[in-house]
Every structure is written in structure tokens, then in C-alpha cells.
Write a structure and sequence with these properties.
With 688 residues, the protein is an alpha+beta fold. The protein has 3 domains: 7-57 and 274-416 and 436-471, no CATH class; 65-260, no CATH class; 491-687, no CATH class. The protein is built from 20 helices and 22 strands. Strands 1, 2, 3, 4, 5, 6, 7, 8, 9 and 10 form a 10-stranded mixed β-sheet that branches. Strands 14, 15, 17, 18, 19, 20, 21 and 22 form an 8-stranded mixed β-sheet that branches. Strand 20 (630-643) and strand 21 form a beta hairpin. The N and C termini lie far apart (83 Å).
């Protein structure tokens, strides 16, 4: 067998064959361009919608970093950031929070951010700069300045009071005056406003913290970005393992807290990914590819049919089937080099124009257009794959045809078999337009089926797009963030460190009556919270697990040692109790059991509350009570305080605290009530 260097000859044959059919080439280029437009516009719209969703989520999450390792020392920060899994990192030193008026209705955090972190926290100054090291400068947003009555002007002085060790009994009020180095516009979607200090000022204030394990004052967080947002939690856990830390056992050694940014679609997808999701994605992609395949396949099928005698003649001069396939593929590639760029450009323009329209249908106020290069790479790859799939069968047909069959080829029945007589049917009546149309469709049943399917799939894709754009329910999307239209409560209730603390936080009945009497209020209900001491009795392991999430083992040992213990061995600890009227009760997510007994005064029933994670999955380890359990709750009406070393009763608690002697507290007057757990529930964040 002799190999002949004829690739150049084959290329020239293919090129000249194309030049002889310019009209057909234009049709083929248009078909490829249309298919590419389909891919590009779909990818652009999908990518832009996803990008818009993520940007809105990031604002609610407080930043666009992938994940965080929390509660670090600076030495641990320097150690962690050397890990090769981290692509980008930035550290934050938390100082404190103002909660007194005028900030009782606003969540504000005072901290230091490394300069690279500012854009990720959406606090990049639009005027001025971040505070310079070694100065009294600070940067903040327009809302903080407005609450302080300060004009947003670089160089202005402002005084702010904030608490160190907020959320603890050791909290300390600090008042400082700063010079405004820069400011940015307030964004109402952000969970918190920031007051940014120089590192030296933040470290000096952080050192004044009490070191309380429940306080974040003086703690560093390391925020990280990885190559992908698909395995954020896995990457963080691997980093901990690489450096000898763990997140599984709060009571174990070297335990560290972590956070995963729930705003990333990839993180949400990997968290909820299952076989049904995979099947849905694969089916949708195959449907899109198949639609484009049918468009281009028809064009190449017609092209090969028209040139079938040409391919037969090539066979007579010794051209192999493999070389003929190469001719067809070469023509497809050359036409793709023209059609795909046109489709990419037009598809991107169409996608950009359609994105705001679709986002408006989804009730989103802001639409961001994604310029991700993967849009063009993906669309080009999909289009090229579709072209080569589409020309594969026509190429095989051209390669198989013999010179004799090529001469006798007819479109409807393929090559005529020698010696086979054709059947002639005589019409009983004259010709009609519908009859001729039907007969013409029957000449090539395969082509008719392909055409009908391609038209049908186009309608199916349009229906899917319409269903997606109109079927989005913003109320359901926001259900886990806002289950009601309006919440009336004391300003302190809406603070991160809020909740029910004192009886004067209750909304006055006259205000409730006034609101309820107004038109437009369809449903409403009160949520009650305990403001006196309420205790429960739990196993030591459970108590250790809870305190171990925020304390080292030696501190947990100390807490357990000073906790009152029942004769049964159970330990006394605090519990948060709620009372709810029918409407808020109807908003609870019932995991197990039935809420009906709660409305029956004759039954001592209670519902055990479980927590959920950022992806709305139940954390089954967040409560020890199970359905049917008997829970003893101690309602305390009077407490007494005593010195632990002598047991002496303390009359002046404030003096005892300042004296530094170890002291404790215990119930003096109380009532123990046994309740039966009738249900396991989750309380929506908005009413918890």
C-alpha cells in the first residue's frame, strides 16, 4: 500500500466545491449563525440572570468572598493564608458595634479591613480614601453619617459611641472622634453598615476587650476566594486539616468556626445537587443541542444530496470514503469560521437586550449583564460540536455512495437498484394542491420528520423560556427571609444582638389596636417572648457541645463545674421560650408532629425549635428534645446570688462583680412545669 501526500489536493477540492455553490454556502452560514445565536443568547441570559441573583445575594450576605475562617489570632491568619488552595485572601479585625440611639434601628459594625477587602464588602469609598495608618481617620457610609448629623465631606469630624464585647455581660462603651477619610453610598440591601478604622486604632481598641469567648472584639476573620465556588466548604475544611485544625467537634482541640457564602449559585447547587438536578441539566442541554443539530443537519443533508453526483465522480478517480468525509468536514469548518463569530456577536447583543426584560418579569429591580468569557467559549464549542454532529451523517452518506448509485440517485428513495421496476400509481381523480403537497412530503419521509421535529423543538424551547420567566414567584423566593409584609416591634428587637430582654420592649396594646383597625390588614398575630429567667435541664454532653462551639475545653470545664446540677445529673441552663398567636404559628415549618395541642389550654404542650443552615436545611443537632419527650421548664420569679468560695449570699451584685470574687446565681422562687413535645418546628428568621 502506497501513501500519497494528497491532503492539499483534498483541501482544494473541498474549497472549490464550496465556491461553486455560493447560495448554498450563504444558507449554511446563516444556519450556523442562527444556531450560535441560540447558544450565545441562552448562555448570556442564563449567565446574566445568575450573576444578577448572586450580586443581590452577596449584598444580603454582606460580601462576595467564598468563605471565612473565624475567630483567629493574627498568627493564625498568617499561617492560614499560605495555603495553596487560597487564590485570594483578606483579613478583618472586628472591634465593636453601636446599638444605642441613633443606631438602635441600624446594624453598624466597627472594624479594620485590609484594603483589598473593601470592594468585597461593598465599602469602597466613592469620595476620599480608606483611613491611613497611624491617624484618627475613619471611613463609613452615608447612612451612618446621616444618623450622626454629619455632612458626607472628606475631612469632617464625627463622634461615635460603640460597645466592645457587645452581646456579653462584659460589654464596654467607648466614645471616639474620627476624621472622615472617605465615604460611600448606603445600600439598604446590605446587612450592616461599616465604620472602617486604621489597623493601629482597631488593635488598640481590640486589646481593651475582655476576652469573653462570646465576644468577637479583637478577633480576626480570614475571608478567602478559591478557583471555583462549587466546593467552598470542602476547600475550607481541607485548609483546616492542612494546618492541624478541625471543625467537626466543638469540644475537641484546635476547633475553628467557619462560614460559607450562601450567595454563590455554585455553593447552593453543590449543597442541593442530586440525580434529578443532574438529569434536568443534561436533558435541557441535549434539547438545545438537538434543536441546533436539526437546523444545520437539514442544510448539510441538502448540500450532500445536491452534490451526490460530484462525490460519485470523485469515487471514480480513486478518492476514498475517508477523504470524502474530510471534504465535508472541511467545508463545515470553513463555514463555521464565518457563521460562528457572527452568531456570537449577534447572540450576545440579543442576550443583553433580553436580560433586563426577563429580569423585570422576575421582579428583580437590578439587572447586571455578565461579560464572562466562558459565554463565548461555551457557545462556540457547543456550536462547533453541533456542526460536526450535523455533518457526520451526510458525510457518511457521501462516503458510501458508489459512482453508479450516484448517477441513479433520487432524493426520495435514494440510489435506484438496478433491475427494480418502479410502481406507477394512477390517480383516480385530477391533481389538487393539498394532494400534491402531501405527495411531496411523502417523497422524503425522513426529511419531513426532521423538519417537523425541528419546528416542534423550537416551540418547546420558547415555551420553556416563557414558563421560566413568568413562573418565578418572588414571594416564594423571599419566603425564608420575609414571611410577612410588616413586623411591628421595639427597635432593639431588630438588632443582631436583639431579642426579648425587658418587659418595656413590648409593643403597647393601643398601637396594636390602631394598626389592626386599619384597612388592608388581612392577618396578624402577636409573638411573645420570655423576659424573666427560664431554665431547662440538659445532659452534660449536650451542654459541653453547645459551649464548646465558642470556648476552649478548659473554659467549658469551668462552665460545667459552676453550673447547677440536679440529683438526676442533668445540668441547669438557659432556654429561650416563645408564645405565638394563630397567625405566626401558621408560619412555622413543622418538621414532625402537630401544633394543635398548643392551642388546647388543658394540655401542657410545647414545640421544640430547630435551626436551619444558610441553605434552609434543618440542623438536626441544634436541639436535644425529640417528639414525645417530656421537658421540664423552670420558670423563675426570683434569683439569688452567692459567693462560690463561701456560699455567702450577695446583697449588692454590682459590688460583687467589681470585687472580682467568683460568684454564682440560683433560683430562689420558681415553678417547675413538665411539658410534652408535641411538634418539632423551625421558626422563620423574620419572626424568630
Amino acid at each position: 500500500m502506497i501513501r500519497v501526500a494528497n491532503k492539499g489536493c483534498v483541501r482544494r477540492l473541498g474549497f472549490r466545491s464550496m465556491r461553486a455553490a455560493r447560495t448554498r454556502n450563504i444558507v449554511a452560514v446563516l444556519a450556523i449563525a442562527l444556531t450560535t445565536i441560540l447558544f450565545t443568547s441562552l448562555f448570556t441570559i442564563a449567565s446574566s440572570i445568575n450573576y444578577s441573583f448572586q450580586q443581590e445575594n452577596f449584598r444580603q450576605a454582606g460580601g462576595d468572598f467564598h468563605g471565612t475562617i473565624k475567630g483567629l489570632t493574627w498568627e493564625q491568619v498568617e499561617e492560614m493564608r499560605t495555603d495553596p488552595l487560597i487564590q485570594e485572601d483578606f483579613a478583618r479585625l472586628f472591634v465593636g458595634m453601636p446599638v444605642d440611639p441613633p443606631f438602635n434601628k441600624s446594624h453598624v459594625e466597627v472594624s479594620y479591613l485590609e484594603p483589598a477587602a473593601a470592594p468585597h464588602y461593598f465599602c469602597q469609598p466613592v469620595e476620599g480614601t480608606l483611613p491611613r495608618e497611624g491617624t484618627d481617620e475613619a471611613a463609613t457610609d452615608t447612612r451612618v453619617l446621616a444618623l450622626l448629623g454629619v455632612e458626607p465631606k472628606v475631612g469632617a469630624k464625627f463622634t461615635i459611641s460603640f460597645y466592645l464585647d457587645e452581646n456579653t455581660s462584659s460589654r464596654k462603651l467607648v466614645t471616639r472622634t474620627f476624621t472622615l477619610s472617605g465615604w460611600w453610598e448606603y445600600d439598604s440591601a446590605l446587612v450592616a453598615s461599616n465604620v472602617l478604622l486604621p489597623r493601629s486604632a482597631a488593635e488598640e481598641l481590640g486589646a481593651q476587650g475582655s476576652g469573653d469567648p462570646y465576644s468577637m472584639t479583637g478577633e480576626w476573620n480570614l475571608d478567602m476566594m478559591f478557583k471555583s465556588d462549587l466546593q467552598i466548604e470542602e476547600n475550607i475544611l481541607q485548609i483546616l486539616e492542612n494546618h492541624g485544625y478541625q471543625h467537626d467537634d466543638p469540644q475537641g482541640e484546635n476547633y475553628l468556626k467557619i462560614g460559607v457564602n450562601w450567595g454563590y449559585s455554585g455553593a447552593q447547587l453543590s449543597n442541593s445537587f442530586d440525580i434529578s438536578t443532574l438529569i434536568a441539566i443534561v436533558v435541557l442541554l441535549l434539547l438545545i443541542i438537538f434543536t441546533g443539530y436539526l437546523i444545520i443537519y437539514n442544510v448539510f443533508q441538502i448540500s450532500v444530496t445536491n452534490d451526490i453526483r460530484f462525490y460519485g465522480l470523485l469515487k471514480t478517480i480513486g478518492t476514498t470514503g475517508k477523504q470524502i468525509k474530510r471534504v465535508v468536514r472541511q467545508q463545515a469548518l470553513l463555514l463555521s469560521l464565518i457563521g460562528i463569530p457572527i452568531g456570537l456577536l449577534l447572540g450576545f447583543v440579543i442576550g443583553n437586550k433580553l436580560t433586563p426584560v426577563i429580569m423585570a418579569q422576575l421582579s428583580y429591580k437590578n439587572a447586571f449583564v455578565s461579560f464572562n468569557p466562558l459565554i463565548f467559549i461555551g457557545a462556540a464549542v457547543f456550536a462547533l460540536l453541533t456542526v460536526f454532529l450535523s455533518c457526520a451523517r451526510p458525510g457518511r452518506m457521501a462516503a458510501k455512495v458508489s459512482p453508479v448509485e450516484a448517477v441513479r440517485y433520487t432524493e426520495g428513495g435514494g440510489p435506484k437498484k438496478a433491475g427494480k421496476r418502479e410502481k406507477v400509481r394512477k390517480a383516480r381523480s385530477g391533481a389538487s394542491l393539498p394532494g400534491m403537497a402531501w405527495a411531496n412530503l411523502g417523497r422524503s419521509r425522513g426529511k419531513t420528520v426532521v423538519t417537523v421535529i425541528s419546528l416542534t423543538l423550537a416551540v418547546v424551547l420558547a415555551a420553556i423560556t416563557y414558563t421560566f420567566s413568568t413562573g418565578f414567584d418572588m414571594n416564594k423566593y423571599l419566603a425564608h427571609k420575609a414571611d410577612v409584609d410588616f413586623i411591628l416591634g421595639d427597635a432593639a428587637y431588630f438588632q443582631t444582638s436583639g431579642g426579648f430582654r425587658t418587659a418595656d420592649q413590648a409593643v403597647p396594646e393601643r398601637i396594636i389596636s390602631d394598626v389592626s383597625a386599619r384597612s388592608g390588614v388581612e392577618e396578624s398575630g402577636r409573638v411573645y417572648g420570655g423576659v424573666s429567667a427560664i431554665k431547662q435541664f440538659v445532659a452534660e454532653d449536650w451542654l459541653r457541645m453547645g459551649y464548646g462551639m465558642y470556648n476552649p475545653p478548659e473554659v467549658v470545664d469551668e462552665i460545667v463545674a459552676r453550673t447547677s446540677r440536679q440529683p438526676s445529673g442533668l445540668l441547669e441552663t438557659g432556654v429561650q421560650m416563645y408564645g405565638m398567636e394563630d397567625f405566626p404559628l401558621s408560619l412555622l415549618n413543622v418538621l414532625e408532629g402537630d401544633l394543635a395541642p398548643l392551642s388546647d389550654p388543658s394540655q401542657k404542650a410545647i414545640a421544640a425549635v430547630y435551626l436551619s443552615d444558610d441553605y434552609n436545611a434543618t440542623q438536626w443537632g441544634s436541639n436535644w428534645a425529640r417528639l414525645g419527650d417530656t421537658v421540664t421548664i423552670r420558670h423563675i420569679t426570683e434569683m439569688e446570688y452567692f459567693y462560690r468560695d463561701t456560699g455567702e449570699i450577695i446583697e449588692d451584685v454590682d459590688a460583687a462583680i467589681e470585687g472580682g470574687r467568683p460568684w454564682g446565681e440560683r433560683a430562689k422562687a420558681y415553678e417547675d412545669i413538665d411539658y410534652t413535645v408535641c411538634a418539632l418546628v423551625r421558626i422563620p428568621n423574620s419572626i424568630s
